[in-house]
Specification:
Cytochrome Bc1 Complex, Chain D, domain 2; single chain; mainly alpha; 63% helix; binds heme C; 0% strand
Amino acid sequence: MLVKKSVMSSVVKSVLFVSTVLFAGVNFADNSRQGLQVAAVSDGFNAEQKYMASCFACHSTGAAGAPKVGDGNGAEWTPRMEKGMDAVVTNAINGLNTMPPKGLCFDCNDDDLRAIVEYMVENST
Ligand code: HEC
């Protein structure tokens, strides 16, 4: 009875050991994959392309009072950036007055939108 119990417990131990190793292996694979990504933007994401496709229509002309993007438009962005980048990105995600939620880019995730806003601000000096 005593022997049988110790055999059983060593079987349980080796099952636990194997599953711990497997679990650790999976975790390691996940972490290294995340480590390779600079930010959690969508696959194949390109801020300039998305800006041109979704935001350019309003933000190049200043339609409906949109802050203009491009050289010489830094003054349009300075007062907005005083709220801090997080607040400005949140407004882009949720919308603000006539600025539509997500700037109508419905396949953009939050990190994509942040990257587009950074692109817009960096290109408006
Ligand atoms: C239909 C026109 C329209 C489109 C399309 C649009 N915007 Fe806007 N956006 C606006 C307007 C208008 C404002 C000014 C809102 C206000 O301050 O009342 C604005 C403001 C903003 C601001 C400033 C927010 C703040 O806190 O001051 C950001 C950032 C922004 N837009 C990002 C984007 C991005 C990114 C896209 C594309 C993914 C986009 N917009 C597409 C009209 C548009």
